[in-house]
Amino acid sequence: MIIRSIGVRRIPQCASVLVNYASSSEMYYNQKRYISTSIRQPMSLIPTASSLVAASPSNIKPYLQLMRVDKPIGTWLLYWPCTWSIAMATPAGQLPSLYMLSIFGTGAFLMRSAGCVINDLWDKDFDKQVERTKLRPLACGLLSEKQAVGLLAGLLSSSLAILLQLNWFSVAVGASSMALVVGYPLAKRYTYWPQFMLGLTFNWGALLGWAALKGDLSSSAPFWMYAAALQWTLVYDTIYAHQDKADDIMIGVKSTALRLGADTKKWLTAFGVGTVASLTACGMASDQTWPYYVALAATTAQLGWQIGSVDIDNGADCWDKFKSNSWMGIILFTGIVMSTLLKEKEDPKQSKNAATLEVEDIDDVVVS
């Protein structure tokens, strides 16, 4: 079989795996686990991301696989903190702006894709040695570095175009995250806490969403949200990292899964408690109403379930628990939206009268 298509090099050594890669982009075997994201699933009226990628033209498919379009969970996990922040910054009694949600949704897709390309450019030699990643387009040779860099340039340019739709303060906040985006993939070479670096990078939208609506970061609420999302990332990405711990030891890269080892669940519990505590502080700082705290109780239960039930030595279970975090995202978003709707709208006349009375009180004190 010879690969002949625009934008894809002729790579005989990878030809034998192309068909398998098209239908199942990641397969992982060892003594205890089998992970497959095969598209062979019960018929559905709504096509899945993996089925759309599998059905795409052969000259485009490697690019979509490099962007992880077939695995949208990463985009959702990047997007949810943005939605929380947008919903929390929305004026009382109103629904969040669909325009802002769309802008941030598009940005999340583009930046997550760019992050995957950067990660694979840094890690292609490591990926060749890991069962779960050895068929990625750069590791396999379906795409060259030059092609990947071209794709990255397009993604970053599109992301900049999205960012420029926001106010200038937000543009500065968004641009300041690029050092983290580029540097995160290197963390696993030098520290056992690359998941902490991922948390700093992945949840920047918690700050950016607030800045886009408010035009500043003067409130403590977005910082509490950022802290909560960071600790949430430590939970789900440590669980994710347990899939690769055997290969990570062999090739010499680091992760919290290796650092925490048998004590993982104790640390996950601490991160989970920190997540809930930070979300509670965030709710208090932003005057949330009761639906927020109902949603917070539900997210607490979801965190408790996944931490308590995950089998860190079972790759399939780790993957399932990792994917379940999108439910936490949508539950909390729904709670914030409902909470904001129930907030009382501030009456401009009452605010003006209150300000006038305050000034009069100050004048009385001065006269006295």
Automatic annotation (TrEMBL):
Pathway: Cofactor biosynthesis; ubiquinone biosynthesis. Belongs to the UbiA prenyltransferase family. It comes from Caenorhabditis briggsae. PROSITE patterns: UBIA. This is 4-hydroxybenzoate polyprenyltransferase, mitochondrial. GO terms for molecular function: 4-hydroxybenzoate polyprenyltransferase activity. Catalyzes the prenylation of para-hydroxybenzoate (PHB) with an all-trans polyprenyl group. Mediates the second step in the final reaction sequence of coenzyme Q (CoQ) biosynthesis, which is the condensation of the polyisoprenoid side chain with PHB, generating the first membrane-bound Q intermediate. Signal peptide: none annotated. InterPro entries: HB_polyprenyltransferase-like, Prenyltransferase, UbiA_prenyltransferase, UbiA_prenylTrfase_CS, UbiA_sf. Its cofactor is Mg(2+). The gene is coq-2. It catalyses: all-trans-nonaprenyl diphosphate + 4-hydroxybenzoate = 4-hydroxy-3-(all-trans-nonaprenyl)benzoate + diphosphate; all-trans-decaprenyl diphosphate + 4-hydroxybenzoate = 4-hydroxy-3-(all-trans-decaprenyl)benzoate + diphosphate; an all-trans-polyprenyl diphosphate + 4-hydroxybenzoate = a 4-hydroxy-3-(all-trans-polyprenyl)benzoate + diphosphate. Gene3D superfamilies: UbiA prenyltransferase (1.20.120.1780). The chain crosses the membrane at residues 73-92, 168-186, 193-211, 223-241. PANTHER family: 4-HYDROXYBENZOATE POLYPRENYLTRANSFERASE, MITOCHONDRIAL (PTHR11048:SF28), PRENYLTRANSFERASES (PTHR11048). It is an enzyme of class 2 (transferase). Its EC number is 2.5.1.39. It is a multi-pass membrane protein. Keywords: Isoprene biosynthesis, Membrane, Mitochondrion, Mitochondrion inner membrane, Transferase, Transmembrane, Transmembrane helix, Ubiquinone biosynthesis. It comes from the Eukaryota. GO terms for biological process: isoprenoid biosynthetic process; ubiquinone biosynthetic process. The keyword Transferase applies. It is found in: Membrane; Mitochondrion inner membrane. GO terms for cellular component: mitochondrial inner membrane.
